[in-house]
Amino acid sequence: LAVDATLGGTLGQPTWQGRLSARQLSARSVVEGLEYSQGELDATLGGNRVDITRFSIQGAGGRERGGSLTLTGHATWSPPPATPTVSLQARADRLNVSARADRRLTVSGNVVTSLANQTLTLRGQLTADQAQFTLPDETAPTLGPDVIVRLNRHSVPPPPAVGLRTDVAVD
Can you give the three-state secondary structure of the chain, one letter per residue? Predict the structure, then answer.
């Protein structure tokens, strides 16, 4: 990790200037079957904005076996009441999302994500290159003996989701 940054401005409105660089990034969760390595990040800081000029990471087994994810974008922030904004463009190329023996998923495609005015928007096209999910009967969820289910004949529909828009096609 290499950071060359300067903090300026005021306590109420801090500003950053500089560069951020990281190599050999990795993330792993054996329980969930997640394994990513060979990650790289290059970003610049300017005022109240960070520009991600390059982020890449490889799935389990390296680029050939585990695929890759690349990402670019930016984020801005300001003191309240202003809200942060984020814009990210991601490309998955045969990315091994889960490597568990009972949960395997490999995807390819593009996704654009934005956060503005407290609304998260996802748009894109993803293809499941490979998928296998095995759900054993003995681990299926069940209600405990102390749970009593009562039907409410006058149920009220849930309120509409606020702050999330999606338009992601999955093949």
Answer: CEEEEEEEECCCCEEEEEEEEEEEEEEEECCCCEEEEEEEEEEEEEECEEEEEEEEEEECCHHHHHCEEEEEEEEECCCCCCCCEEEEEEEEEEEEEEEECCEEEEEEEEEEEEEECCEEEEEEEEEEEEEEECCCHHHCCCCCCCCCCCCCCCCCCCCCCCCEEEEEEEC
